[in-house]
Write a structure and sequence with these properties.
alpha/beta; globular; about 230 residues; binds pyridoxal-5'-phosphate; TIM Barrel; about 40% helix; eight-stranded parallel β-sheet; 9 helices
């Protein structure tokens, strides 16, 4: 059984990597510039272990409990990416297992992370919300980025390395990613360490690569479809 699952994961992974390579070549980019974060959320730890055996070292999780449990059971040389909505009371826990946080969108949360001894080893992406009318989606508006970054820059243990977004359903992905890429180029003038773009999921990672993605977060096209999340 687990051999079959491993074959399936290997095949899906191979297909995605071939598409990543093609997309990179087509935009004149090097495939090594692009980190594939395999989003293992909702899938069992056995899948993460198989993916580890297949050579994957970057895993994405949306929930603290699940990420923390998986970290214990997968190899030590893994980068764990937290990309879900941050709850204030979970920050202390997230800092124990995550290496990269993709969804920072509150100065208050940044302050709480800064109080943690692990803060200096964490890397952060600021999540950008391209639909300011929909605050429920989380993220800082493009217009709000300068003020947000200025406040976070005052916390010297918080290392913001890039911007992250999820393309809204009603905007063409390329347009959305272009907007975030431009926002990144703009803020990079004041914050030279902001160089990374976490954009692109199963349905739109090729457009994301064309727009400069350095991190793509891919779940369903490697692991299969997930039950709808509560
Ligand atoms: C679930 C999730 C992904 C992966 O989505 P797929 O469409 O399954 O590739 C990527 N990013 C975030 C923020 C997610 O919540």
């Amino acid at each position: 059984m687990s051999d079959t699952r491993k074959d399936e994961l290997a095949e899906n992974l191979g297909k995605i990597k071939a598409r990543v390579a093609t997309a990179a070549t087509q935009s004149g980019r090097k495939v090594e510039e692009i980190t594939l974060v395999v989003v293992t959320k909702t899938f069992p730890v056995s899948d993460a272990q198989l993916l580890y055996e297949l050579g994957e070292r970057n895993f994405g999780e949306n929930r603290n409990e699940e990420g923390s449990a998986k970290k214990e059971l997968v190899g030590p040389d893994v980068m764990w990416h937290f990309q879900g909505q941050i709850q204030s009371k979970k920050i202390r826990h997230i800092a124990q297992w995550a290496n990269v946080v993709h969804s920072l969108d509150s100065v208050d949360h940044a302050r709480k992370f800064a109080e943690m001894p692990q803060a200096k080893d964490l890397k952060f992406f600021v999540q950008v919300n391209l639909e300011p009318s929909r605050v429920d989606r989380g993220g800082v508006s493009v217009a709000g980025l300068p003020d947000f970054l200025e406040e976070v820059a005052g916390l010297n243990s918080i290392d913001v390395i890039g911007l992250m977004t999820v393309a809204p359903l009603d905007i063409a992905p390329r347009e959305a990613f272009q907007e975030v890429a431009e926002a990144k180029n703009l803020v990079q003038k004041n914050y030279p360490s902001i160089t990374q773009l976490s954009i692109g999921m199963s349905g739109d990672f090729e457009e994301a690569i064309a727009c400069g993605a350095t991190h793509i977060r891919i779940g369903s096209s490697i692991l299969g479809s997930r039950p709808p999340q509560a």
